[in-house]
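User: Sequence in, structure out. Go.
Assistant: Echoing your sequence, followed by the structure tokens.
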Amino acid sequence: MVDIMDARKVRLAYLKFFEDRGHKVIPRALLVPQNDPTTLFTGSGMQPLIPYLLGEEHPQGRRLTNSQTCLRSQDIDEIGDNRHTTFFEMLGNWSLGDYFKEEQIQWFFEFLTKEIKLDPSRIYVTCFIGDAKNKIPKDEISAKIWTNLFKEIGIDHASAEIGSEEDGYRLGTQGARILFYSDKNWWSRSGKPEDMPLNEPGGPDTEVFYLFPQVEHDPKYGKKCHFNCDCGRYIELGNSVFMEYLKTSDGFVKLPKRNVDYGGGLERIAAAAINSPDVFKISLLFPIIQKLESLSNKTYEVETNSMRIIADHLRGAVFLAVDGVVPSNKEQGYVMRRLIRRAIRFSFNLGIEDKFIAEISQLILSLYEPDFPEIKAVKQKVVETLNKEENIFSQTLRKGLRELSKLQDKGLSGADLFKLQDTFGFPYELSLEEAFSRNIKLKKDYKKEYLDLMEQQRKRSQTAAKGVFKGGLGGQTLIHKKYHTATHLMYQALREVLGDHVIQHGSNITEERLRFDFSHPDKMTPEQIAEVERIVNEQIDKDLIVTWEEHDTKEAMDKLHALGAFGDRYGKRVKVYRMQAKGESKPFSFEICGGPHVEHTAILKEQGKRFKILKEESSSSGIRRIKAALV
């Protein structure tokens, strides 16, 4: 049985439960995806496993499990309720062409009710209602499995067919334990079936919800409450996707190899284990709340919103720092900076005047270090990184105050408030507070203008996020394979030209170019850049044969000396790609990688293209960055 308040034991119990059922525990991927240009962050447990869900063989076999750290920056503005966090752990298990619905549903129900000891009478589920237009049947199989599981423990089955969330708000649960939804219970990277492109995989899913009867339905979320209601009375614990269909020109057909992709929120399951609808009461978050109470001499009950935002944002920022991100004005660094600065902004609500981030960061690190051994080596650097940003923001505050002073006479418009926040990092709420204390007038409709500009920005971000995730199963096209292959060739060429101290620190591939970060103390000279280009093109001309083989990780790295990316954590077995010319005794490149690649390097020079380094620049201290393309 899981101890009260101990989310860590929930995590360990889950991994052991599935390990006992033949699953290999694989390490978490970094929060910043490697070789994936489609998204800024790892936002789900399945994301790092995309190639294997599409058919590649995983070195660890067909049954996998892990707890994946995730970050969803699009949820920043939702933080403050009882269940949303930007950073979270996704408990996952996968069947790659092995077991399917019967085993998955039964195991998850058993884990919740036997291992975590949740009350089965408070568990509710949803299934796919079917799609007659696309000849996809209603998921009666999953519903029947759930019905039988409930009957075995004396709970009568009651189901209702609700086609959408809107129907749910209108009709309520109708006394059902199983509800049938349409789009809500269909998964593909592109959304509902009609939006899917050809040769796209997808399938129905079943979601599990836990009822918190102590939470009253809030009518502002709809006339009636139902499982997917946003009032917090029902909280989703997990989602099992049954990927079994492929969209073709002749309609949907069954995949030859069906997959199971389960993801469940550790924080939410841990909250259910202590009968709390508030995820911030679990053992990985409440100590942060208690520290904030101590620093501010205020209570969580009074300052709930501010304390939740600070706890969530700093936890996310700490793990970004653990995975090598530093605050900046671009990409992942921008999100990290925003998290830290929002945390500082809400510390003003608590009356915390002294710097506090180092103390909170150390606490967060101590909560996670027992199960994330990589933290030990970077603890000091993480604290220094966040502490430095806190110091920088102090300067930002002064700049914001100066800008406010310039507007003293003319008054503040909504556009001024938006600019102060977006350009100078000076929070909207703080601008209003300063305007009030300085008697700066606020122009008519300032709030509406500000909110309109924020909404425009939010829509731009959402559009980007949707476009980003839409490509989540991408990166498998020929041009992607060419750039993956070129990255291997360039990595080895850099080591030959600059030295063996060159180690990969990250890469990013799009259809237009490759980006590669590596350790090197100095700016590359024009001569060095030209030599790297020459070597890569020479290997392309040699038409190296590209093959891969599986090895034990320790053997691959220590005995065979395969190159690997700095910071990547590998399972017990890995794929090692060999690029070698016919007749030569040694490979030019021998590197651990998940793929995909071309079969031979001459493909890279099709249409007369040559490898060209477009830009070489600093990425961070001691790390250089190259952008290159086939032009």
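User: And one key feature?
Assistant: Confidence is low (pLDDT under 50) at residues 1-5, 464-474.
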